[in-house]
Amino acid sequence: xKNHWWKFLGxxxxxxxxxxxxxxxxGPGIIxxxxxxxxxxxxxxxxxISGYQTHFKQDPAIKVWLIHQSKQKIKTCATSVQVIDxxxxxxxxxxxxxxxxxxxxxxxxxxxxxxxxxPDAIVTTDTASVGVIQSCSPDVEVKERNEFPFRxxxxxxxxxxxxxxxxxxxxxxxxSWAVICNLRYLRKLDGKFDRMADQAIKAGLLFGIxxxxxxxxxxxxxxxxxWVDDVKLNxxxxxxxxxxxxxxxxxxxxxxxxxxxxxxxxxxxxFVMMIALIGILPxxxxxxxxxxxxxxxxxxGSYDLDSSMRMxxxxxxxxxxLIGFWIYAIRNRIQExxxxxxxx
Amino acid sequence: MKKSAFILLxxxxxxxxxxxxSGMDEKLFQxxxxxxxxxxxxxxxxxxxxxxxxxxxxxxxxxxKLLKEVKK
Lengths: 344, 72
What we know:
The complex is a heterodimer of chains A (about 350) and B (about 70).
Chain A: H1 5-23, E1 29-35, E2 45-52, E3 63-68, E4 75-77, E5 80-83, E6 88-93, E7 103-110, E8 114-123, H2 165-188, H3 191-222, H4 231-251, H5 256-280, H6 300-304, H7 307-343
Antiparallel strand pairs in A: 1-2, 2-6, 3-4, 3-7, 5-6, 7-8
Helix pairs in contact in A: 1-7, 2-3, 2-5, 2-7, 3-4, 3-5, 3-7, 4-5
Chain B: H1 2-22, H2 26-71
């Protein structure tokens, strides 16, 4: 029993992440915001805001403001907020910008619903000569809430973070373990390490394939296509192909010593390529990627992943990595038994 | 069945054009995005479950083969 604690830990972490990840509700948010005209020449203009699971009526003091998309220090507070019902409010704004084509994020704050945010909600449509644009600084105290943040396109599918992303973490953990075993094989030339590396790669590929399929499903709903031209997607596809080539290469050789040595060198090479393709290239500023944290996009760490999500995401990753190593351990033991029988 | 689906679709499109002017309603938002975005979570879980079960099945076959060899 002593050596099995990590399997129970993995199972417990997975159960926690499943229950918490599926049962925690999505918090309130802004579904739509239509302005009668965001033209600055006819200011003040009114914006009608529709909320999702909001309780505007319960809170008399609702603050609404606009944040300039590129110059985020420029904020314009609503001069008056009119509550129609729990789901709808009207906010009246002074002139926001002298030029057309300026984008603004919309922020709504109430004590009961917390901070609601809609990116690129308003765009100015014409040029006007207005006086000094007044910037305001709304001081609000955002409390922690036991719900996942509302994101317009993701919506409920934000929960996939706990199921799709840990697949990749598990694959990378298993492939890293394979490289450690490969290096140990090359140093000691012990067949044990060759077997371990081979089984770790095979277990890792299972999670790679699952990550690719689940990502494709998620992309269909949020990005509108099964496969999009994204550096990270193409990088993972090349990585998986490289590792499939590993299986073919290894399977095609008879001599054990030779097979183990070539497989070890190929695996190290493939791993380095994987790190470059999915760890470094997509993070460069010049590349364009839809994934968070890549191509200049904000990472989940900066503002998308709030503490309520971290509390589920990290246990999910740890749980799946442990389960991945469990599958690897079973594979390894069966393979060892097979080799022992064949030797007799 | 087909007819009712058509009517439902027509109603959704009609309501889209109505709400397009005054902002989207919570109920309509649920109809358009809510179920689709939740279903994809279940689809993802289903794929992962099938994947792990297939791995389990293959391990089972391997262990079975070994046992037969040992018995010989």
